[in-house]
Specification:
Oligomer: homodimer
Structural class of chain A: alpha/beta
Helix content of chain A: 40-55%
CATH topology of the largest domain in chain A: Rossmann fold
Largest interface: A-B, 47 and 47 residues
Largest sheet of chain A: 6 strands, parallel
CATH class of the largest domain in chain A: Alpha Beta
Number of helices of chain A: 12
Number of domains of chain A: 3
CATH architecture of the largest domain in chain A: 3-Layer(aba) Sandwich
Shape of chain A: elongated
Distance between the termini of chain A: 65 Å
DNA sequence: CCTTCCGATGCAAGCGCTTACATTCCATGT
DNA sequence: ACATGGAATGTAAGCGCTTGCATCGGAAGG
């Protein structure tokens, strides 16, 4: 039913080899012949069969993006952004992309092989076993938004410390001296970096950090609001909160409203991710911006290069900046 | 390098045909033989090569999800939800999924063929030419969140009218008699349905609809806020606003705050989509819930069946319900 | 006019799997 | 002991493409 290279060959009166070359190496075919082939092809509505091509070339051009985080999926704007970047780049580079969340990674590692996946992008924090599994099947790996010690893998991460530093600096510039950190619900790597960034920034600003001012909560706004209530209801409360995500920041703002604290008047807040909700909150949320799409694109580029045997940098850092709005 | 069916065949001492059967039709192979085959396979870390299989079987098991909406992508929570459902189901049914946004659909239609795409899910409002293009290549099509007259295509849509009706009813039950509708920025189909739903609902509640109470705005919160300012600042203002999306609702709430109107005290608001932001707004937003994931899953099921030649229903309606929170 | 050489083309062998058809095996029935 | 049939297995021909190598044709050089 669908036209094959044979049909084109017959109609144009040249061999299949020539037809093949006319498409994949036009330079090797005489102008005139090439034109005849193209005519025949379009008359037959012929398009090369990518599957057969892959089969013959012994490659699959397939990559996978695994989101390794409990209940974090494409619905999470952050991962969606990365995914968006990955998709775009994959399409552009003619790579098949398989996206999967982590819940079934055990099995994923297996049919990653059967699906002939040549490279895999691991988002969130991947289990070391998973990594070994892929390495054993010598599938090329790129980490995104994570780093793993013990494994020498290329990774692309945001400049977390810088992001936090920018936020802290901004708060300091606005006159805040007592700055609290609210974090939690993220991967060890992220939590680690942001915490370290906070400590560094506070030190360089010459501000003390009290243990009471570093609070853990989970990633929901409700949980954040609860923790924030506790943090903010004391008499000697911080005047600014540096939240680990926009959702947490939203929780903090809820708590502030409940306690009758005006934002930014009596309490300044910064978020992280610069997600869509920043513009919806009242006042609009100042937040650390990361170009997630670029992270995704970079990851694919790295993967592509790695698969092609090109040497790639171990660590690619995507810059962060502060998107200033109304909460400071 | 990678073990093939031949290697397994040799090691286990049976023919490749038997190995093949041991994997794809275990019932046809004697218990004992099957075990030998499996042992050999796992010794060689063999996994069937899906590409070769597809090639032999003359099918690709590839489908595509095209988001046909300017600047709406996976970043839009709504589409992300559908996409999530599609991915899950596609993975479960062992289908390759290609996700692409609409900007390059022209070319997409072409390499959809070369990539051997067997079926395509069209999200948002697709161009009729696109549809014809696919039909010409006889690629099976399923529409999601849209319907197209002139084409007899299976589609899965949410029960928009019911959703609007539920919201209107709820507002009515809370004593509101002057209910405004704020909409815009969506596809003709969605706008049409929701508008019709509004008119229907108001009629059945015995409430009059004044033209002044139906406002158009685009999909951003800022635009919505502006329109809402106008709508709400007159002396004879509506007491409730039924917004076409959560973002628009957020804009309305902003306007209300700016005008000093308390929500829900002096103004009730309902949103649509029941997205993550509902819980972040203050007060939390009452919104129409749609099981988008199920929409995606259903679309894949429909596609699968269609590709298999099974007769499928023309229209699948996913029920909607009202997620009640604090803005009514 | 006849080599020489190179660009253009054709030939045919795979790539790893499935499957129709042929063959072999073995448990029955007689 | 032997015919018989169904179950288990083997044989080999594809699926649509690429590509190393062989072949051909014509321009350039002698």
């Amino acid at each position: 039913m669908k036209a094959t290279i044979y049909d084109v060959s017959r109609l144009s009166g040249v061999s299949t080899a020539t037809v093949s070359r006319a498409f994949s190496a036009p330079g090797q075919v005489k102008e005139d012949t090439r034109r005849r082939v193209y005519e025949a092809a379009s008359a037959l509505k012929y398009t090369p069969n990518a599957i057969a091509r892959d089969m013959a070339l012994q490659r699959s051009n397939r990559i996978a993006y695994l989101i390794c985080k409990r209940q974090a999926t494409i619905l999470d704007e952050f991962y969606a952004g990365i995914c968006e970047g990955i998709m775009r780049r994959a399409n552009a580079l003619n790579l098949q992309l398989i996206v999967s969340t982590a819940d079934d990674w055990r099995q994923m590692a297996v049919n990653a092989q059967s699906k002939q996946v040549e490279g895999v992008i691991l988002g969130g924090d991947a289990a070391p076993e998973l990594v070994s599994e892929f390495q054993a099947r010598n599938t090329f790996i790129v980490l995104v938004n994570n780093r793993m010690r013990g494994f020498d893998l290329p990774c692309v991460v945001a400049d977390e410390r810088e992001g936090i530093r920018l936020a802290a600096q901004r708060l300091h510039a606005a006159g805040h001296r007592r700055i609290a950190l609210m974090m939690g619900g993220y991967s060890p790597y992220i939590v680690g970096e942001r915490y370290a960034g906070f400590i560094e920034a506070m030190a360089s600003l010459g501000l003390p950090v009290s243990d009471a001012d570093v609070t853990m909560c989970d990633r929901s706004a409700a949980s954040a609001a609860m923790s924030a209530m506790k943090l903010l209801s004391g008499p000697d409360r911080p005047t600014a909160v540096l939240a680990v995500s926009d959702v947490v920041a939203a929780g903090v703002m809820k708590a502030a409203r409940r306690l009758g604290l005006s934002v930014p008047g009596q309490l300044a807040v910064t978020g992280y991710d610069d997600s869509a909700i920043c513009n919806l909150l009242e006042p609009e949320l100042t937040s650390v911006h990361v170009d997630v799409r670029r992270m995704g694109e970079t990851a694919v580029d790295l993967l592509r290069q790695g698969m092609d045997g090109v040497q790639t940098p171990r660590i690619t850092v995507i810059p962060t900046r502060l998107a200033e709005r109304g909460t400071v």
